[in-house]
Automatic annotation (TrEMBL):
<dbReference type="Pfam" id="PF00043">
    <property type="entry name" value="GST_C"/>
</dbReference>
<keyword id="KW-0963">Cytoplasm</keyword>
<comment type="similarity">
    <text>Belongs to the GST superfamily. Theta family.</text>
</comment>
<feature type="domain" description="GST C-terminal">
    <location>
        <begin position="22"/>
        <end position="154"/>
    </location>
</feature>
<dbReference type="GO" id="GO:0004364">
    <property type="term" value="F:glutathione transferase activity"/>
</dbReference>
<dbReference type="GO" id="GO:0005737">
    <property type="term" value="C:cytoplasm"/>
</dbReference>
<dbReference type="InterPro" id="IPR040079">
    <property type="entry name" value="Glutathione_S-Trfase"/>
</dbReference>
<dbReference type="InterPro" id="IPR040077">
    <property type="entry name" value="GST_C_Theta"/>
</dbReference>
<dbReference type="InterPro" id="IPR036282">
    <property type="entry name" value="Glutathione-S-Trfase_C_sf"/>
</dbReference>
<protein>
    <recommendedName>
        <fullName>glutathione transferase</fullName>
        <ecNumber>2.5.1.18</ecNumber>
    </recommendedName>
</protein>
<dbReference type="InterPro" id="IPR051369">
    <property type="entry name" value="GST_Theta"/>
</dbReference>
<dbReference type="InterPro" id="IPR010987">
    <property type="entry name" value="Glutathione-S-Trfase_C-like"/>
</dbReference>
<keyword id="KW-0808">Transferase</keyword>
<dbReference type="GO" id="GO:0006749">
    <property type="term" value="P:glutathione metabolic process"/>
</dbReference>
<comment type="subunit">
    <text>Homodimer.</text>
</comment>
<dbReference type="InterPro" id="IPR004046">
    <property type="entry name" value="GST_C"/>
</dbReference>
Length: 154
């Protein structure tokens, strides 16, 4: 949870870029962490549940209309994410990775795990993902997302 991440960052005095002491940068991190619950998390999880889990649990195929509606909801918040939070910066809080970027990329990998490559036609978002992956290390990034990326193969 967000509360646990913030607690851990404070308790273990992680490097400042994860949860910046600079008030403006911290406000950007806090703003994203508050916004993402009903936006990126809500819409990304909904697509994953609709496309992967519900058909698996019910044995019923997904209606194309339902998938289209859920995908469009996600596309709206992805546009907001790019325009409001990424803008022209390398990361959400500026030039360095933060907890906001980690939370964002984890949520965005759920739709990818459902077979919807939301990075494919969004160069700004794809470049941001590559920067996040490089900042945490490619091997760790792949290892952390291995389960979700294989979910559609269940």
């Amino acid at each position: 949870s967000i509360a646990i991440l913030l607690y851990l960052a404070r308790k273990f005095k992680t490097p400042d870029h994860w949860y910046p002491s600079d008030l403006q940068k911290r406000a950007r991190v806090d703003e994203y962490l508050s916004w993402q619950h009903v936006n990126i998390r809500g819409k990304g999880s909904k697509l994953f549940l609709t496309k992967v889990l519900l058909p698996m649990l019910t044995g019923q195929p997904l209606s194309p209309e339902k998938l289209e509606a859920v995908t469009e909801e996600l596309n709206v918040v992805l546009k907001q994410f790019e325009e409001k939070f990424l803008q022209d910066k390398p990361f959400i809080a500026g030039s360095e990775i933060s907890l906001a970027d980690l939370v964002a990329v984890v949520e965005l990998m759920q739709p990818v795990g459902a077979g919807y490559d939301l990075f494919e036609e969004r160069p700004k978002l794809a470049a941001w993902r590559r920067r996040v992956e490089e900042a945490v290390g490619k091997q760790l990034f792949q290892e952390a997302h291995e389960g979700i990326l294989n979910a559609k193969n269940l």
